[in-house]
From TrEMBL:
Keywords: Disulfide bond, Metalloenzyme inhibitor, Metalloprotease inhibitor, Protease inhibitor, Secreted. One of its GO terms (molecular function) is protease binding. This is Metalloproteinase inhibitor 2. SUPFAM superfamilies: TIMP-like (SSF50242). Pfam families: TIMP (PF00965). Belongs to the protease inhibitor I35 (TIMP) family. It is found in: Secreted. Disulfide bonds join C5-C52, C10-C15, C23-C44.
Length: 71
């Protein structure tokens, strides 16, 4: 909202964007759902060069690595 990006839904291949300020929404193509993984976890954000791209949202991980120890 208010970012100047346009989300274009991809229903079948081939699909592409027509302007640099578009993000290609592929949930329907990949999962046959309109509100799949991309819709739930990513946001189309305008970058400093004026183009738009998908960025993953959500809370940061609790740990950056997993501690594995021998029993």
């Amino acid at each position: 909202m208010g970012c100047g990006c346009k989300i274009t839904t991809c229903y079948m291949v081939p699909c592409s964007i027509t302007t640099p300020n578009e993000c290609l929404w592929t949930d329907w193509l990949i999962e046959r759902k309109l509100y799949g993984h991309q819709a739930k976890h990513y946001a189309c954000i305008k970058r400093s060069d004026g183009t738009c791209s998908w960025y993953r949202g959500g809370p940061p991980p609790e740990k950056e690595f997993i501690d594995i120890s021998e029993p």
